[in-house]
Design brief:
- It is a single chain.
- The chain has a single domain, classed as Fumarylacetoacetate hydrolase, domain 2 (Alpha-Beta Complex).
- The strands form two sheets. Strands 1, 2, 4, 5, 6, 9 and 10 form a seven-stranded mixed sheet that branches.
- Helix 1 crosses helix 3.
- The longest helix has 17 residues.
- It is 24% helix and 30% strand.
- It is built from six helices and twelve strands.
- The chain has 256 residues and is α+β, with helices and mostly antiparallel strands.
- GO terms for molecular function: 2-oxopent-4-enoate hydratase activity.
- Keywords: Lyase.
- InterPro entries: Fumarylacetoacetase-like_C, Fumarylacetoacetase_C_sf, Hydratase-Decarb/MhpD_sf.
Length: 256
């Protein structure tokens, strides 16, 4: 299966609102490089259709989630303007198996085109905000291997940004930030920023290394989702969701 064939199959399934069995069931030799190649074909098709790339996202950045999903390393995907969603009412009927998770979002201040060291990171961050990422895997029951999830744009379906963008220096230790997800007022998930690679800022290091390895750059003014603090929570019509990160704010979503 070529990357082009895989991207076309995934695109058709997305448009038709159906899920698939993982490509690796039939082709177990598919690898990370192949998965990213499919992702690049998908992105190129979206850009040709008029979408605009606005950032990047990381996934599977917690060890616990890697173990649950059976993928033993973080993954990198893309964000486009068509994926950005408003806070408030959320039409979940557009997706097949939607889930939502809270994330730290960084707004970049400089072009990232090389691997960055930890001490350089603050100068690349124009601001930080709370975000909610909506996932909708093409793989039935979220069952996949590394090549599958990469080909599927790391399950990215949409993202919501909180209303406030904060200065990195004022929000304190991101690793210590407390976060929680509430459904109809009841807490269903809790975690701290340390769940994301020990410190969400490390997501920028991983992203920069990925960009350098693939010979691409992310311009200033891009959004970067650092990865989920908690497990993804199923989105069910008729329920209200609140995703809160201490010092960054709360996103409220009414699933319809």
């Amino acid at each position: 299966m070529t990357p082009g064939e895989a991207a076309a199959t995934l695109r058709a399934a997305r448009v038709e609102g159906r899920t698939l069995e993982p490509f690796t069931d039939e082709h177990p030799d598919l690898d990370e490089a192949w998965g990213y190649a499919v992702q690049q074909v998908d992105l190129a098709e979206r850009l040709r259709a008029g979408e605009r790339r606005v950032g990047a996202k990381l996934g599977l950045t917690s060890e616990a989630k890697q173990q649950r999903m059976g993928v033993r390393r973080p993954v990198v995907g893309f964000l486009t303007d068509a994926m950005r969603l408003p806070e408030g009412r959320l039409d979940v009927g557009r997706w097949v198996q939607p889930r939502v998770e809270p994330e730290v979002a960084f707004l970049t201040s400089r072009r990232i085109d090389r691997a960055l060291g930890p001490t350089e990171l603050p100068s690349y961050v124009a601001g930080v905000a709370v975000a909610a990422e909506v996932l909708d895997s093409r793989w039935t029951g979220y069952r996949f291997r590394l090549a599958d999830v990469l080909a599927d744009a790391t399950s990215a379906a949409g993202f919501v940004l909180g209303s406030g963008v904060h200065d990195l220096a004022t929000v304190g230790d991101l690793a210590a930030l407390r976060g929680e997800v509430r459904v109809d007022g009841q807490v269903v998930e809790r975690a701290t920023g340390a769940a994301v690679l020990g410190d969400p800022l490390r997501a920028l290091v991983l992203l920069s290394e990925h960009l350098a390895a693939h010979g691409v750059a992310l311009p200033a003014g891009s959004w970067v989702l650092a990865g989920a603090l908690t497990d993804a929570v199923p989105l069910v019509a008729g329920r209200r969701y609140e995703l809160e990160l201490e010092a960054l704010g709360t996103i409220r979503l009414d699933a319809r």
